[in-house]
Amino acid sequence: MDKLVSSLNCTLHLRDGQRSFELDVDFHLAAGELLALSGPSGSGKTSVLRILAGLESRAKGRLVFQGQVWQDHAQQIFLPPQQRSIGVVFQDYALFPNMNVRQNLHFALFKHESTALIDELLDVMDLQDLARAFPRELSGGQQQRVALARALVRRPKLLLLDEPLSALDTQMREHLQQYIQELHKRYALTTLLISHHPEEIQRLAQRVLVMEKGKIVGEAIPAEESKKGFQLRAIWMGAVDGMAQVQLGENMLRTVVKENEVFEIQVGQVVWIRMLSKDEFEILPEIT
Amino acid sequence: MDFINTLLLTLRLAAITTIILLVLGIPIAYRLAYSRSAWKPILEALVSLPLVLPPTVIGFYLLLAFSPNSGLGQWLQETFDLRLVFTFGGLVLGSVIYSFPFMVQPLQSGFEHLPAHLAEASYTLGKSSWTTLWRVLLPNIRPALLSGLVLSFAHTVGEFGVVLMIGGNIPGVTRVASIAIYDEVEALNFGEANRYALTLVLLTFVFLALFFRYNRRSQPWISW
Q: Does the ipTM exceed 0.85?
């Protein structure tokens, strides 16, 4: 397979409180891409990230990252997280409370490696002044920057971000989006970003996968011109009695339409839609 | 002289027991804290058993098990020339079993209360579970470690039933302070009993006071 493409094709039995469901995903990730994963909570996004990180050994299927097999259930291959070229930022940051900022970064260094990269990362993330501070002394945004910097100390090829900005206020979020963008380019990373925020996805991601109940139900390319959100590819199923129907993944969605909005669309045609609520959509002119 | 010897023996027993418990307790508490096995409740019940059983029950079974007349006792004696009944070695073993939950429970609770992602974050930073345990998990459960140490030590100093059953009352060998107190009271030597009792009260008080003082200063980064 192409060394510039990574692929994940796997299933995993998940339990979410009382109910259990099957995670079943199959997608590709191009080198250098920033892919967003979106969808309601409990849809399995974090599990996908954990499979990529090597924290879910129970997953059945195959994961190949840029030509290297990381996981293959059939061949009993499982690379532990230590042997994968990854950097992970957890939702709760997971900074080590007993170490200060510099020590948190230093902990991640390979043996005998110079500390030059630590200084560089502290610089890039504007953390030099906080190098001696302990995590409990930092604000949410500062902790987030430390977590990002720490995730890059091992020069990973794949950066995994689990809703990294969800706990921050709007201003801080925009500020940190710039850091993520900067890091992604500067270190030539392939990045998977889990996010709920359409504007964040719009701003950062080159592509977005939408998940629901363990399945990928939509794929979209955030469009510049679409200011409110991102667009999804859905299959047109026709309109009856003023109710338009499209199929998004395995889900059938309905919305009220006027006839002149839909008279040119053929059944089976791919249309671009924008979600207005969980099961309501509007049809968009096709983007190029 | 007998007084000092008895006290030294008591402290030696408590110190050795605590060190053994620390070495055994860390891996067991770690396993229990992160286990998803169906056997976990059974193991937890087993670890906690000494909390609720009368010490004499534990002592009684240890006595039966290690007596030279039993299969195990005979085997130990013949194979390793090891006699555990009415010896200091037997006291240590009995104390380790008796104080086991006092070390394991604080440690397990310490591990369980750590943020879930700390260990995983360390793994994704390329660190082995051994390095993670030493450099991330243990330093962040220092208050729990201290609790385990202090409780095990104090509990061993205060034990009576197990010691009496398996150790008996041999001066300089198995006669610890709590046994000495009982012995002196039986002989109506209230003054001597008081000397032992008061020393124990003072010793454990100072010990606990030092613990609380140190415990407050040792955790500048964490609030429980």
A: no
